[in-house]
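Work Package 3 (structural annotation) set out to generate three-dimensional models for the target panel prioritized at the project kickoff. During this period the team completed the workflow that converts sequence records into discrete structure tokens, so that structures can be stored uniformly alongside our sequence database. As a representative example, we reproduce one entry of 325 residues exactly as it appears in the project archive.
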Amino acid sequence: MRKTDSNRLLSFQIILLAIGILLTASCSSSPKRDLRLTGHEDAVTDVAFSPDGKQIASCSNDKSIKLWDGESGEQLLSINTDTFRQRIAFSPDGNLLAHCGKGGWIKIWDTRDGHEVLAIKAHSVDAYCIEFSNDGSQIASGGFDKVVNIWDTKTGERVFTYEGHTSRVNAVKFLPGGKRIASAGYYDGIRIWGLEPGSEELVLEHESVRDLDCSSDGHRLVSCGGSAVSSTGVKLWELPLGKLLQFFDDHTGPVPSVAIDAKGTVVVSASSDVDTTIQVYNPDTGEVVNEFNNHGRGVLCVAISPDGERVASGSFGNDILVESL
């Protein structure tokens, strides 16, 4: 081959390579499409992103858990749980999914094939919330019996019981480091406590608390609440001192669910009554930066993707929406 032809071939190959790189970059940077996930036959009571953001789990009063592909929206798995009023949580590695609900049971499922890994009779009455520890070795659960129990995920044995609440426990979160926990009693506010007996306790006041979430560094905690018909707003707290940073009061109905992104830069809340909106806040300024109202029915749950780019929500309309923030 002549030198001129060789140079032309090399130039052509370089151009093709450059085009390939540009196309790859364009595809990888393009926003993920919004999704509407249907398949549940009753209200969707909780949603969760897997730790890698590739899957979405949902549970419903139709007594099922469903696992969805976060990109295509394809249903990957459906599990019959025989209970309603459920909450769910992924393990840190994404291989396990725990749920709790009516009757006080915790069950752990393998997300790869849907088989039951562990079942624990965790509470004497209904269980309202569940959360894996940062290393996945423990699960915290709260219930109508006013206690928070900590369980070993391998053996199912109870490790610790916290009895500081005077009303049902609606939410529980392991704080970074795994030694302290935030829990919410419906009538007695938020308690932040340690897993060691005699640990100092911090009490944060929020009436009718429904849900909690925490940034990945543990410096920001959000709570939300409301009675059957009215809102008690969304509060943003600074930890470890428990200083109130913001009070968001834009919902006109009860706020059953709240989420904060890993970096602590976005807060999302949902309302479940006449107000059917999802509000998106800038936690630094307290301003509403976006609003979604696409369910048409009350919204029961929200979750933010690990990359902070999308919000998943479930409603009384039996559907899940995944929308770009």
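DSSP finds one helix and 28 strands in the chain.
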